[in-house]
Amino acid sequence: MRKADVTCACCGAGFRRLELWSEPGAKGEYHCPVCDYLLEAFDGTNLIAYRLTIQPARAPAHSVKPFEDQR
Protein backbone atom coordinates (compact mmCIF):
# COMPACT_ATOMS: atom_id res chain seq x y z
CA MET A 1 0.00 0.00 0.00
CA ARG A 2 1.18 3.49 -0.82
CA LYS A 3 -0.16 6.72 0.74
CA ALA A 4 0.33 10.18 -0.72
CA ASP A 5 -1.05 13.68 -0.41
CA VAL A 6 -2.32 15.29 -3.63
CA THR A 7 -3.30 18.90 -4.27
CA CYS A 8 -5.63 19.99 -7.07
CA ALA A 9 -3.72 22.30 -9.42
CA CYS A 10 -6.90 24.22 -10.26
CA CYS A 11 -8.61 25.00 -6.92
CA GLY A 12 -6.09 23.93 -4.25
CA ALA A 13 -8.23 21.22 -2.63
CA GLY A 14 -6.18 18.60 -0.76
CA PHE A 15 -6.62 14.84 -1.01
CA ARG A 16 -5.23 11.68 0.55
CA ARG A 17 -4.47 9.13 -2.18
CA LEU A 18 -4.28 5.43 -1.33
CA GLU A 19 -3.01 2.78 -3.73
CA LEU A 20 -3.39 -0.94 -3.03
CA TRP A 21 -1.21 -3.31 -5.03
CA SER A 22 -3.02 -6.39 -3.68
CA GLU A 23 -6.39 -5.44 -5.25
CA PRO A 24 -7.19 -4.89 -8.92
CA GLY A 25 -8.89 -1.59 -9.63
CA ALA A 26 -11.18 -0.22 -12.28
CA LYS A 27 -10.10 1.65 -15.38
CA GLY A 28 -11.30 5.26 -15.32
CA GLU A 29 -10.60 8.78 -14.14
CA TYR A 30 -10.83 10.77 -10.90
CA HIS A 31 -11.91 14.42 -11.10
CA CYS A 32 -11.79 16.95 -8.28
CA PRO A 33 -15.29 17.11 -6.75
CA VAL A 34 -14.90 20.86 -6.17
CA CYS A 35 -13.86 22.08 -9.64
CA ASP A 36 -13.98 18.94 -11.87
CA TYR A 37 -10.26 19.13 -12.72
CA LEU A 38 -8.81 15.78 -13.84
CA LEU A 39 -6.48 14.56 -11.09
CA GLU A 40 -5.64 11.10 -12.42
CA ALA A 41 -6.51 8.53 -15.08
CA PHE A 42 -6.44 4.89 -13.89
CA ASP A 43 -5.36 1.88 -15.96
CA GLY A 44 -6.98 -0.59 -13.55
CA THR A 45 -3.89 -2.51 -12.44
CA ASN A 46 -4.15 -1.30 -8.80
CA LEU A 47 -7.01 -0.11 -6.59
CA ILE A 48 -6.75 3.66 -6.08
CA ALA A 49 -8.90 5.73 -3.73
CA TYR A 50 -9.06 9.47 -3.09
CA ARG A 51 -10.38 11.22 0.01
CA LEU A 52 -10.93 14.97 0.25
CA THR A 53 -8.98 16.22 3.28
CA ILE A 54 -8.67 19.99 2.72
CA GLN A 55 -11.45 22.12 1.28
CA PRO A 56 -10.19 25.03 -0.84
CA ALA A 57 -10.51 28.50 0.70
CA ARG A 58 -13.21 29.29 -1.85
CA ALA A 59 -14.72 27.47 -4.79
CA PRO A 60 -13.45 28.48 -8.24
CA ALA A 61 -15.57 30.94 -10.16
CA HIS A 62 -17.76 29.26 -12.76
CA SER A 63 -19.38 31.09 -15.62
CA VAL A 64 -23.02 31.16 -14.59
CA LYS A 65 -25.72 33.14 -16.33
CA PRO A 66 -27.35 35.71 -14.04
CA PHE A 67 -30.86 35.00 -12.81
CA GLU A 68 -33.45 36.48 -15.15
CA ASP A 69 -36.69 37.92 -13.80
CA GLN A 70 -39.54 35.63 -14.89
CA ARG A 71 -42.65 37.83 -15.12
Keywords:
71 residues; mainly beta; 3-stranded antiparallel sheet; 5 strands; disordered C terminus
Number of strands: 5
- The multimeric state of the shown protein is single chain
Q: Structural class, from helix and strand content?
A: mainly beta
Give the SSE order as H and E letters: EEEEE
Strand order of the largest sheet: 1-2-5
Radius of gyration: 16 Å
Q: What is the residue-mean pLDDT, rounded to a whole number?
A: 85
User: What is the number of helical segments per DSSP (H or I, 4+ residues)?
Assistant: 0
Which range best describes the helical content: under 10%, 10-25%, 25-40%, 40-55%, 55-70% or over 70%? Answer: under 10%
Largest sheet geometry:
3 strands, antiparallel
Q: Low-confidence stretches at least 5 residues in length (pLDDT < 50)?
A: 63-71
